[in-house]
Amino acid sequence: NETSITPADCDTIEADAGVALDLVNRHRRDGYVFGLFRVVDAYEQHIEHSSVLYLTLDVLETECSVLSGKHWETCEYSDASSLASNSVFGQCKIITYTSQQLKKTPKLYGFNCTVSPVPPDLFECEDCAVKYEILEVTEQHKDIAAKALEKYNSEGDHTNYFNVDKVEKILK
């Protein structure tokens, strides 16, 4: 059979890209949920009773941890005043597989996301009341977080106690 790769249908691709991005976010265990900024490229390959979707997406990091399990559309993005030093943008290449015969939801075949912070000189904000800077996470930061949570545990009447699993971002 012929298995040509063709450009994806523009009318449905944004919904398919959103589903694919949600699959990527559910697969990740570190960081923050990626939100869809735009679809850069999309191709489909039909093989007998299934299809493979090849996507290239521009993404922005939201304020939701991937551990929250939240869908990317329900997460907030950084506000404009902290955009210069708080935002992370990047690109994800995603491959999904869908069986038309089983009419199943797409399965994540593979993905690769490359992200980096927005360079501070890209956004100059003279009128911003508060400026943020992302700091590298150190042992000192982990100790501060552990002590703060220890205090929270000791002051509350909780049935469960909390422990720091990981410090992901420090803002100054």
TrEMBL record:
Keywords attached to this entry: Blood coagulation, Copper, Disulfide bond, Fibrinolysis, Glycoprotein, Hemostasis, Heparin-binding, Repeat, Secreted, Signal, Zinc
GO biological process, one term: regulation of platelet activation
Keyword Zinc: yes
Database matches in SUPFAM superfamilies: Cystatin/monellin
Main location: secreted
MF terms in GO: cysteine-type endopeptidase inhibitor activity; heparin binding; serine-type endopeptidase inhibitor activity; zinc ion binding
Gene Ontology CC terms, in alphabetical order: blood microparticle
Cystatin domain residues: 4-114
Keyword Protein biosynthesis recorded: no
Pfam families in UniProt: Cystatin
Protein's cellular compartments: Secreted
PANTHER family attached to this UniProt entry: FETUIN, HISTIDINE-RICH GLYCOPROTEIN
Name of this protein: Histidine-rich glycoprotein
Organism of this sequence: Casuarius casuarius
